[in-house]
Design a protein that fits this description.
By secondary structure, this protein is an alpha/beta fold. The chain has 9 helices and 15 strands. α5 crosses α6. It binds ribose-5-phosphate (R5P).
Length: about 290
């Protein structure tokens, strides 16, 4: 029988415990004391020896601090175990997967270099923003999807003639997959984001959503701009209720209240990032991918 040790990074303790329970693995806690100058003092409560070590740590904000915690834990543990997997349920920097404007650093490829340098043998992540980002990591990496788990949640809801909507064409395939599992239709809006100012506009002019419940499906919500603009557009088109299903709810600043103010009835996300909206657990799909 394979002997696993799960180390819970400070950003993903609850999820790490869930994964450890499912795998019947030893659970090890980490400590993170932040000094007044912002530096972290990271500790591992009990160093695992000769087991497959799974370090669970999402890299949501504070992104760089959480990333350093992950890198530090792996770097320490590599002296005692040769098989270390980084379980990064939410992979920060995945949107920086190419040089969009001249001079931009492809940060996700830097993250890959750092993870390789400290001794990461494999990465498991959930609904990474793009396949390009996954490739740029240049480590054996598995991307699992939480769509089926989100769908299970929505199947229990009473919805009126529901329609799945992607806020942009980049999410069309995801919305399609969601809709197929719900056995309903999907559409994708056309969105434009100004790369310099971040301003978002919906370019679609008309959709047929009158009196229908809509589920906006996205991989992540950051500032909420994409969801707010899409909701305002759909409301103008006289849809009934708007629900949001996403894997990663970053919800930076006051995104949650702004989204609600725009008229969204409910935001449902997973626990890749622990938030009030995290009603769907990814512990099972991650554990299944490990076994
Ligand atoms: C974009 O391609 C992504 O799938 C999300 O739609 C986007 O990153 C969400 O960001 P925000 O909430 O800031 O609009």
């Amino acid at each position: 029988m394979v002997k696993f040790t799960v180390i819970g990074g400070n950003a993903s303790e609850d999820l790490a415990r869930k994964i450890a329970r499912r795998l019947k693995a030893v659970y090890v806690k980490t400590g993170n004391r932040v000094f007044p100058d912002g530096e972290s003092k990271i500790t591992i409560k009990k160093i695992p020896r000769n087991s497959i070590v799974l370090v669970v740590q999402s890299t949501y904000p504070p992104v760089d601090t959480n990333l350093l915690h992950l890198l530090s834990v792996i770097s320490k543990v590599r002296k005692y175990s040769s098989k270390i997997y980084a379980i990064i349920p939410y992979m920060g920097y995945a949107r920086q997967d190419r040089e969009f404007l001249e001079g931009e650093v492809v940060s996700i490829s830097v993250i890959g270099k750092l993870l390789r340098a400290v001794g990461t043998k494999k990465i498991i992540t959930v609904d990474i923003h793009s396949k390009t980002a996954l490739r740029e990591l240049k480590i054996p990496a598995e991307n699992i999807t939480a769509i089926s788990e989100l769908v299970k949640f929505f199947k229990k809801k009473k919805l009126k003639n529901p329609l799945i909507v992607s806020p942009d064409s980049g999410g069309e395939q995801r919305a399609n997959q969601f809709a197929n599992l719900m056995n309903i239709e999907s559409i994708a809006l056309k969105k434009h984001r100004n790369r310099k100012t971040g301003k978002i506009n919906i370019l679609t002019s008309k959709v047929n959503v009158k009196d229908r419940d809509v589920i906006l499906v996205d991989d992540m919500i950051s500032t909420g701009g994409s969801i707010i603009k899409s909701t305002q557009f759909l409301k103008k088109q006289k849809c009934k209720r708007v629900f949001v299903a996403c894997t990663h709810a970053l919800l930076v600043n006051n995104a949650e209240s702004r989204i609600k103010k725009a008229g969204v009835a409910e935001i449902i996300s997973t626990n890749t990032i622990p938030r009030n909206t995290s009603k769907v657990d990814v512990g099972k799909i991650i554990s299944d991918a490990i076994l």
